[in-house]
Specification:
Blueprint (H helix, E strand, L loop, with lengths): L16 H15 E6 L3 E6 L4 E8 H7 L7 H8 L2 E7 L8 H12 L8 E7 L1 H9 L7 E5 L7 H4 L29 E6 L4 H11 L4 E4 L7 H7 L3 H10 L4 H7 L7 H13 L3 H14 L3 H30 L1
Parallel strand pairs: 3-4, 3-5, 5-6, 6-7, 7-8
Antiparallel strand pairs: 1-2, 2-4
Helix pairs in contact: 11-12, 12-13
Length: 324
């Protein structure tokens, strides 16, 4: 096992694609192992402490969401002395590949997951599906999945028309229906926006399997990036690993939305569409007081001008009525 003081600070940012993968492979082999899994997947393991984060990620997500263009788990290697196993895909594959399934089976047979006191599975979207589906490989694991699909088997989810090209993919055999794979986990959490209808319908399928819903209303359909930008994804996963995450602790973390302008803008648009002018004004006034937010300053001024114009019209009408 690596010493907690051993330096671990690789930087893969801005490397060309081929060099990026070669460097990621070299780092992983120096600290654990790297394995290619066919043409579209690979596994990269860094061994450290007795907490393991198993992150399912896309190559594109790694390069877009982290400043170092690295697996999400490497943050926890540095900050928390965790071990990391990243299973990565080039594009959205839902990890329904025999080579990926074969790796998971080998890790189970080798007792890989048994070496760790705590195992946390994590992913978002198609990667969230995989995190839930493969968590059964480590009974007692904890799971955090963001906007996951339960399955893309059209017999069960024909209402989800976003991924029609995946309907020929086998979701019926081993590790297929993700909610059923949560039976052996210690805790599972599904993060989603209940106003995103298709995400909410998938989340309902997970809820029937005992997963705890963590709702982010009016946050939209790119929650992983929003959690990163609000700087609450890392503490959320730390709480999940420690067993302290619940709906109450998540609500405290989610207070970060009060200063998160993309959320505040969506909220203002929703209030305007609902013609809730007084609530829009209160929101604009509050945000303009706390944050440098020109759009909210302008909206507050517009409503104040409308109020003043309406008051002048009322006064004129009253005067005309008295004179008449």
């Amino acid at each position: 096992m690596q010493d907690a003081d051993t330096k671990f600070d690789p930087d893969l940012a801005e490397l060309p694609q081929g060099k990026w993968r070669a460097e990621l492979q070299a780092v992983s082999e120096d600290h654990g192992f790297f394995e290619s899994l066919g043409k579209k997947h690979f596994a990269a393991h860094v061994r450290r402490g007795d907490t393991l984060i198993v992150s399912f990620e896309s190559v594109q997500g790694m390069q877009a969401l982290t400043s170092g263009a690295e697996p999400l788990g490497w943050t926890f290697v540095r900050q928390e002395n965790w071990s990391s196993l990243c299973i990565a895909a080039d594009g959205d594959t839902w990890f329904r590949d025999p080579d990926v399934i074969g790796l998971i089976d080998r890790l189970v047979d080798d007792g890989f997951f048994d070496d760790f006191e705590t195992v946390l599975f994590y992913g978002a979207g198609p990667c969230g599906y995989a995190a839930a589906a493969f968590s059964v490989a480590a009974p007692g694991a904890r799971v955090v999945t963001i906007q996951p699909q339960a399955t893309l088997d059209a017999r069960l989810t024909e209402w989800d028309t976003r991924f029609i090209e995946m309907r020929c993919t086998d979701f019926a055999t081993r590790y297929g229906y993700a909610p059923d794979m949560l039976d052996a986990c210690a805790q599972a959490f599904v993060v989603y926006d209940p106003l995103e209808q298709l995400d909410a319908m998938h989340a309902t399928l997970f809820a029937t399997a005992g997963a705890v819903p963590l709702r982010m209303p009016r946050m939209g359909n790119a929650l992983q990036g929003d959690l990163v930008r609000m700087r609450i994804l890392t503490p959320l996963l730390i709480q999940a690993a420690s067993g302290t995450l619940d709906q109450s602790s998540f609500a405290k973390l989610y207070r970060a939305r009060r200063t998160f302008l993309p959320y505040l803008r969506r909220l203002m648009v929703a209030l305007d569409r609902a013609k809730r002018t007084e609530l829009t004004y209160l929101l604009a006034y509050n945000v303009a007081k706390r944050i440098n937010a020109p759009r909210f300053v302008r909206r507050r001024a517009e409503i104040e001008a409308q109020r003043e114009a309406a008051q002048q019209t009322d006064e004129k009408n009253d005067t005309d009525a008295q004179e008449g």
